[in-house]
Amino acid sequence: MTSGMRITWTLGAHGWADCTLEDHRSTAELAASSITSAPEEFLTAVARLVAGETETRAQFEAEPAAYRWIFLREGEDIWIHVLELSDGNAHDTRGTQIWFSQLGVDQLARTVIRCFDEVAQTHGESDYRGKWGEHFPRTELEALRRLWRAHQHPQAP
Q: What is 6-145's CATH topology?
């Protein structure tokens, strides 16, 4: 399994963000537009994995291109495939895989939470809204955090 995964969400021009994915093997750069709820969709997809779903997806629109995240879970292992598509409505087979990683569900959740905690700390929620054009995804981030904590410390029967 990989270790040391890092995701960075950097706000750019109004309504745009750059997302950098890094692990010990590779780095990928993605763009996201605020025409869709990319951060909320991404956080919700990871929360679904933590809750036990075996497959989920998220997509960042980059007008007209798109970046599709495909998450597959087996036990505590997560496989992440990121595809670049020239059209966001295209089938997966039309995409080019630009990043792949395998890691544990706890590591993925921790990495994503850390990413958005850093965004909130760097910009504050008001500045985030001014730059991104939408509210900071606080509800989705806290839902993921609650699920992750419950996953780390399950209740005894």
A: Secreted effector protein pipB2 fold (3.30.2450)
